[in-house]
Amino acid sequence: MNSNLLHQVALTMVPNIGPVQARILVEQFGDATAVFTAKTAALENLEGIGSIRAKNIKSFRDFTTAEKEISFMQQYGITPLFITDAGYPRRLLNCYDPPTLLYYKGTADLNNAKVLAIVGTRSKTEYGRQLTEKLIADLEAQQVLVVSGLALGIDAAAHKAAIKQGMATVA
User: Domain range holding 159?
Assistant: First the structure.
């Protein structure tokens, strides 16, 4: 099993280590494996980490759960994207707290030059559905990547319209 992937998944499971702290740690130590092998003092002295988080990293032993997560990904063809991976969405890196690890299935270019985020009501009207479908159809030639949370309603209508037009979607 890929040791760095194991440590990347495990890093997301360490108590009190959220996206901000994970990013600080990876920027300081280079990769997730190096975070787990770092000396306690080096972790404690890192701004934003301190002794409690350092202790949580050094005492983390639930690698079995991380291995199960990796097995699940392999079984279902899910690809992980760690915050330092080249394919990680560059736009998210501008956020204060981008997700440490993303999971995806498919082939959409997450760094497409043109991205349209669709956020709509779950209780769509017929007019809302028609307008969403027209908007998506009108943008088909622009090679837009359609993104949403895939909620029922307008989000789902946008994805269905994009698929009908042969466009890439991400939910």
Answer: 115-170
Instruction: Judge if 25 and 74 occupy the same domain.
Output: yes
Task: Among 51, 74, 104, identify where a domain stops.
Answer: 104
Nearest to 169 by CA among 115, 119, 95, 101: 115
| 119 and 100 assigned to the same domain | no
Q: What is the DSSP string of 92-104?
A: GGGSSS--SEEEE
CA distance 87 to 82: 9
Last residue of a domain, one of 104, 136, 156: 104
Residues linked to residue 29 through DSSP beta bridges, in sequence order? none
Per-residue pLDDT of the chain (171 residues; tens, 9 = 90+): 578 999 999 999 999 999 999 999 999 999 999 999 999 999 999 999 999 999 999 999 999 999 999 999 999 999 999 999 999 999 999 999 999 999 988 887 889 899 988 888 788 889 988 999 999 999 988 989 988 887 888 989 999 999 999 998 888
84 and 47 share a domain? Answer: yes
Helix/strand/coil for 81:
strand
Q: What is the pTM of this model?
A: 0.82
